[in-house]
Amino acid sequence: QVQLVESGGGLVQAGGSLRLSCAASGRTFSRYTMGWFRQAPGKQRELVAAATSSGMTKYTDSVKGRFTIAEDNAKNTVYLQMNSLKPEDTAVYYCAIRDGATWLGKFDYWGQGTQVTVSS
Fold it and tell me: How far apart are CA 89 and CA 67, in angstroms?
């Protein structure tokens, strides 16, 4: 089992920044993919950013140039730095991990989510 705990959400004005953290514990994977997802009210959950243990990253178009996913392996933590936030970034943000360094397949473990609210 893997436990993922997100933190860092909150209320911020448009144009501001937040850094989300996701601390992982429990089972480890030699190869893995970490993902940050979000779900806004009435909308489907979407993948925001992902990173593999091999160093690849990808972002959904709406956050490219504003969000950055990064890992601190020593702390077993993945971060999502969010800059130039917009009201449409408002959502519950979840981190997840998948066994294997691949963009394919479902994510195996999920955190409980952290609320991000961007005011206009």
Answer: 11
